Amino acid sequence: MSIPNEALQKLVQEIETQAVNAQREINVVKAAIVSKQRDIRMLELTSTELKQLSTDTNVYEGVGKMFMYTPADSVEKRLASQIAELRSDISSLNKKLHYLETTHKNSREHIDQILRSGRR
C-alpha cells in the first residue's frame, strides 16, 4: 500500500514545520537558561559581598528613585529565595529543553524515514 505523493509531501511539510518550531523554541529556552544563570551569579556575588560586611553596616536597597534602609539579614534571605527560585526555573527549563530536543530529533528521524521509504 503506497501513500499518494501529495499526501506524502504534506506530511513531510508538517513534520518539517514541527522540527523548525522545536528548533526555534530550543534556542529561546537555551537563551533563558543562560540569562537565569547570569542572574544567579550576580545574586551570589551580591550575597558574598553582603556577608563580608560587618554586622553593624547599614544596608540600603533601591526603591524607585530612592534608597531605603533594609536589615542585612532580610536582604540575605531575599537573595537566597531569589537564587532558589531561579534554580527551580532552570530545572524546569532543562526539562523543557530535553523535551524539545527529543521532539526535534524525532521529527528529523521521521522525515528521513519517509524519504527513505519514498525512494523504494
Short description:
The protein is mainly alpha-helical. The chain has two helices and two strands.
Rg, rounded, reads: 25 Å
Q: CA-to-CA gap between the ends?
A: 12 Å
Q: Overall pLDDT, averaged? A: 90
The counted number of beta strands is: 2
Question: What global shape is seen?
Answer: rod-shaped
* Strands in their spatial order, largest beta sheet: 1-2
Quote the beta fraction.
Answer: 5-15%
Count every helix, treating DSSP H or I runs of 4 or more residues as helices.
Answer: 2
> What structural class do helix, strand and pairing data support?
mainly alpha
Residue runs with pLDDT of under 50 for 5 or more positions: none
Proportion in helices: over 70%
Q: Describe the sheet with the most strands.
A: 2 strands, antiparallel
| Chain oligomer state | single chain
Along the chain, the helix and strand elements come as HEEH
